[in-house]
Design a protein that fits this description.
Blueprint lengths: L13 H32 L4 H8 L1 H8 L1 H7 L5 H18 L6 H29 L4 H8 L1 H34 L1 H7 L9 H4 L1 H12 L1 H21 L6 H29 L2 H4 L1 H30 L4 H27 L4 H17 L7 H18 L2 H9 L6 H30 L2 H31 L1
Helix pairs in contact: 1-2, 1-6, 1-7, 1-8, 1-9, 1-15, 2-6, 2-20, 3-6, 3-20, 4-6, 5-6, 5-8, 5-9, 6-9, 6-20, 8-16, 12-13, 15-16, 15-18, 15-19, 15-20, 15-21, 16-18, 17-18, 17-21, 19-20
Length: about 475
């Protein structure tokens, strides 16, 4: 597909860019998992329910993806490095000040600012990775996803110990200090020195050109109107035919204006990535559902264990087990990529295993059984965490559309994250059972498998044609 059309950059700085995204995802994954430790305390502190608190605590990751289009616009008025460093500061300061929030709504606004700051750092790094690794994007991006895994099993343990030693305020202060590392991630961003970025990212200019192409339709409309006005002025010299000709020209001008407006709207509509890349549109539901399950599982794993009667200090170690098994899952995925295994088949097989683990998760409440389920789910979920960007790269047929696809792809991820956390909390508030919540995850994983199979069949047919 598209990733075979270009070569990777030879600039050695590309490894620094990989490390910067690794650290940023370490921060993001660590924050998401740490909120799983903090969520019971937040519910008690603000006398709220799990649905509302889950929605609020999902805002950092969600807003990071939702506000990427704003980051795209800001890249036109400031350098990626400056934007990345400002984003790093905006990521950390609200978390440090979070204990000062007097209500759950103020806390939500502060965490939304954190998400916006992470977007300002995440988007330029993501575009830089595509610039440096145009050919091996999937493999290189998967390497950076180890940051989420490491953050998932290290940061929650740190925060849990911080809560015991320093309390609620100290826990947030230390979490904010970890988030400050995003400033360094933004400081190292720079373009490759061995190629012209204007040529690497033609869509940035191409989009502007495509919008300009529509301009003749508007100018044609103006010309017709001008001719209509001139003709009307001339016909006024003839008193007998003035009324009929004026009516005729008015209807002609109105019809021309309507046709030009329709043409302009159609041109703008078809310029969207979802219309230009039908296979990317086909796989979009799987991306949303995968993020739905992944984000909610990360948030509710510890509360699920506590509901089963496990102490919080022991329940936190389920994160560690899941994180260590997630590292194994990432390595396994990279090995399979090295041997040219099909991504779609890998994800289908992984979805099947993880769905079974979610269906049987409530069979037993013993710590050994829950640890085994965390081991399986950590391995499979962290492989599936590679699905959004991998399937985006595979489904986009034109390499020039890759930078344009990054922004809507992150938007799909954000939709999955916020709906997963909020709806999972709502389901628990209604059923008072995390076992039911995990069964819902299993059903959604089955739907992802069906979507992947449909994509594979259509993609194979297109390849033969």
């Amino acid at each position: 597909m598209a990733e075979t059309m270009l070569e990777d950059s030879t600039d050695s700085w590309k490894y620094v860019i990989l490390l910067s995204k690794f650290v940023l995802l370490f921060v993001d994954g660590g924050i998401a998992k740490s909120f799983g430790v903090l969520i019971p305390g937040v519910v008690v502190r603000y006398d709220s329910d799990f649905g509302t608190v889950a929605l609020v605590l999902s805002l950092p990751s969600t807003m990071m993806y939702f506000t990427v289009p704003i980051a795209t616009l800001l890249m036109k008025v400031m350098t990626p490095r400056t934007m990345g460093m400002i984003g790093g500061l905006l990521s950390a300061v609200p978390i440090i000040c979070a204990p000062l929030a007097q209500s759950i709504y103020i806390l939500g606004m502060m965490l939304a600012v954190t998400g916006f700051g992470m977007a300002l750092t995440f988007f330029p790094i993501m575009v830089s990775i595509n610039d440096y690794f145009a050919k091996s994007f999937i493999f290189s991006n998967t390497l950076t996803l180890f940051g989420t895994t490491c953050g998932a099993f290290l940061v929650p343990v740190i925060i849990e110990r911080s809560l015991e030693a320093y309390g609620y305020n100290g826990g947030f202060l230390i979490l904010g200090g970890i988030a400050l590392h995003a400033v360094v991630c933004g400081a190292v961003i720079r373009p490759p020195r061995d190629r012209n970025i204007d040529n690497v990212r033609p869509s940035a200019e191409g989009e502007g050109d495509s919008l300009i192409v529509v301009q003749p339709a508007e100018s044609t409309e103006i010309d017709v109107l001008a001719v209509g006005e001139t003709s009307t002025a001339l016909t006024e010299l003839n008193e007998q035919d003035s009324k009929s000709k004026n009516d005729t020209m008015a209807r002609s001008s109105s019809s021309t204006s309507w046709r030009c407006s329709c043409d302009s709207f159609t041109s703008t509509l078809t310029s969207f990535i979802f219309f230009q890349e039908p296979y990317y549109t086909l796989i979009a539901p799987a991306i949303i559902l995968q993020c739905f399950v992944m984000a909610a599982w990360m948030l509710f794993l510890v509360p699920h264990a506590e509901e089963a009667g496990i102490e919080r200090s022991n329940a936190v170690f389920l994160f560690t087990i899941a994180g260590i098994s997630g590292i194994f899952g990432r390595i396994l995925y990279l090995v399979l990529l090295h041997f040219k295994c099909d991504n779609t088949i890998i994800f289908c097989f992984t979805c099947t295993i993880s769905a079974i683990s979610c269906f049987i998760d409530s069979v037993s409440s013993s710590y050994i059984f829950l640890a085994a389920m965390a081991l399986i789910q950590g391995t499979t979920f962290f492989i599936l965490d590679c699905l959004p960007h991998a399937m985006m790269k595979l489904s986009v047929r034109n390499e020039a559309n890759i930078p344009r696809a990054i922004s809507p792809n992150l938007l799909l991820v954000g939709i999955g994250v916020i709906t997963g956390d909020a709806l999972s909390g709502y389901i628990y508030d209604v059923t008072s059972s995390f076992g039911t919540v995990f069964v819902v995850y299993g059903a959604l994983l089955v739907l992802i498998t069906v979507n992947l199979v449909i994509f594979k069949l259509n993609f194979r047919r297109w390849s033969r044609e």
